[in-house]
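so the lab meeting is tmrw and i was supposed to have these ready like two days ago... anyway. pasting both below. for each one the top line is the aa sequence and the line under it is the structure tokens. i havent really looked at them closely yet so no promises
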Amino acid sequence: RQSQFSFDHIFQPTCTQEEVYTHVGKEVVASVLDGINGTIFAYGQTGAGKSFSMFGKPSNPELMGIIPRAATAIFDRIQADVAGTEFSVKCSFLEIYREQVKDLLNPKGSALKVREAPRVGVWVEGLSSEFLSSPEDVLEVLTVGEKYRTVASTSMNASSSRSHSIFMMTVEQKRADGGILSGKLNLADLAGSERVGKTEATGHTLKEAQTINQSLSALGNCINALTSQSGGQSSNANTKFVPFRDSKLTHLLKDSLGGNTKTTLLANCSPASFNHGFKLGSRPVNVCLHNSLDS
């Protein structure tokens, strides 16, 4: 059976990390510096290259992923400013492991709670943040956080991420005329979807896989509901309930999925023969988001 999918761009197997950033990250990062929140997240099957796309090898300029390239672009923009703008850049780094939110910059801390309020939106209570002054500071934070991220070996991936990670950068600008502009960038490396029969996961790793799949299923359900709203596929499309609270991931990324954020989803597909039959839809293309300046 053949299936057709629509995407904004399809990368060839020979594409470079720079090409991926240019098409996936450049516009989103520029928007954040203009006061519009942005989100980029990598989705796909385990072992398909999500972490490499997002992180890459930061010490190698050619192999740097989206996150270090985004950091470099932000500080390049700051260095180029000639209008006397004061910039403040800070970041946080968390993982969602088996539906528990953990601070990767404070690994000894307890699980954190996701909160939501009408005027404030969604945030993580007690999440630490670090102020940044250069791309090197970002690389240092990534190194520390990645060291504490949960990984395990399966038959499909020798170093499989067992959690979703989200690296968040907030850029605040105080202009010479007194105006304040703020933009937040969420960069998410999602844990890979798994077919347990192929990963041969057992015991603790099996429970991790089940939680990962449930979380990604919740993400799919939210996208399906949002697509129905945008496309008017049902008679009550405008009032269709979107189950953001079904998982920590969708609750935390509520604004990224259906709110005031410019969002890009990078779908990572593996050409390996044992992945034949794994389907990845293109419904996110049809989700309508409404962007506005945060000032």
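ok protien two:
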Amino acid sequence: MLALGLKIPNLTHPSVRAEDQVLEVFGQKPEFGFTPRDHIDLGKTLDLIDFESASMASGEKFYYLKNEVALLELALVNWAMQKCVAKGFIPIITPDLVHNHIAKGCGYAPRGDSSQTYAVEDHDLVLVGTAEIALAGMHADSIIPVEKLPLKYVGFSHSYRVEAGQNRESKGLYRVHQFSKVEMFAYGTPTMSDHLQEEILDIQRQLYSDLGLHYRLLNMGFSDLAASASRKFDIEAWMPGRAIYGEISSCSNCLDYQARRLNMRYKVQEKENRFLHTVNGTACAVPRIIIAILENFQKADGTIAIPAVLQPFMGGMSTIPSRKASQ
């Protein structure tokens, strides 16, 4: 019975519909006096991304970031972490490996034919698909005093995903097996979780507006909800080289779904403990943001402008220069 019960998804928020709903659109699509190139072409031409060598070393859907884009990844991580810390989030560098039951408790299937998670053979460990999993694991089997809530973390980890599509929309950096990600995660009482989701969503909007991106906010439909999510908002940025919007973040209110499975509670008073609510949201999924930057800020002379907010994290560099890739 317990195994069957664990397969039951979360309760769905009343606002969720059958189809995704576009709620807001931010910024303007860039206008080019030339045909914009996609990040794969730009990455090869400017010697920024090497898929071929990574394929030889690690297999398909891996990559080397080189030159200015290697620095861009580090800049994005540092910038996103600092922005979240300024909003009251506690910075955490998380483990990339967790026990099976932690991933399962978060709503991820860690083993089996349908799993999208890398498992370590002969060990009770899996590679995380997001820092959300390790951040939830921090307080497994714990009781948090109510006066310490809400508890807000921003975590950095590498993320690992087995699935990597082969269609046009999934090419290049868009869907890969390993990537860097900054994730916001919050614990609260049932009366706090809706507000925490709005707070995280506000931070996401600030981050992507500060980068100068054109993006849209969606309330995701039934079919796009993970088992753990009661309500999920996605943000999709315009990617002109692909001529489509692409997901760059999500924000989910999981209510007490994860807390019940990981036995995470808060103390109301002596001998009265209740299940916490958890909320998570992407601050920066690095490869997706790199795509958006390369494709939106490319210039006719072959250079790429670096967003002003990132320049202090790149030694004052304002432009990725035009160059021919090394052979």
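from a quick look at the 2nd one: The CA atoms of residues 183 and 279 lie 11 Å apart. The chain has a mean pLDDT of 93. will dig more after coffe
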